[in-house]
Amino acid sequence: MGIIVRILISALAVFAGAYILPGVHVRSFGVAIIVAIILGLLNAFLKPLLVILTIPVTILTLGLFLLVINAVIILLCAKLVDGFRVDGFWYAMLFSIVVSLINAILGGMD
């Protein structure tokens, strides 16, 4: 699947997640595309470093701490992108789950 298609699917997932959750706000689909790109970059470069640094906690929680890392990355993205706002940690965690599910469903249709 091409990179542009992946970005568009992720942007659609971001836009749908913001529609589903009242604590997540995306101004427009253009902002959702920017959020998808920034989330992709943060997941590619920052997430592996955070996973390595938190291996003991992740093992102790049987991998559930990875949800916390995902929520932190989404909150960081909300700080970086104007027009994307998340009202709190729990909304960020729910948003990461919703976006992952939508990406899995839409990404598996190719």
From TrEMBL:
<keyword id="KW-0812">Transmembrane</keyword>
<keyword id="KW-0472">Membrane</keyword>
<protein>
    <submittedName>
        <fullName>Phage holin family protein</fullName>
    </submittedName>
</protein>
<keyword id="KW-1133">Transmembrane helix</keyword>
<dbReference type="InterPro" id="IPR007165">
    <property type="entry name" value="Phage_holin_4_2"/>
</dbReference>
<feature type="transmembrane region" description="Helical">
    <location>
        <begin position="88"/>
        <end position="106"/>
    </location>
</feature>
<dbReference type="Pfam" id="PF04020">
    <property type="entry name" value="Phage_holin_4_2"/>
</dbReference>
<feature type="transmembrane region" description="Helical">
    <location>
        <begin position="28"/>
        <end position="46"/>
    </location>
</feature>
<feature type="transmembrane region" description="Helical">
    <location>
        <begin position="53"/>
        <end position="76"/>
    </location>
</feature>
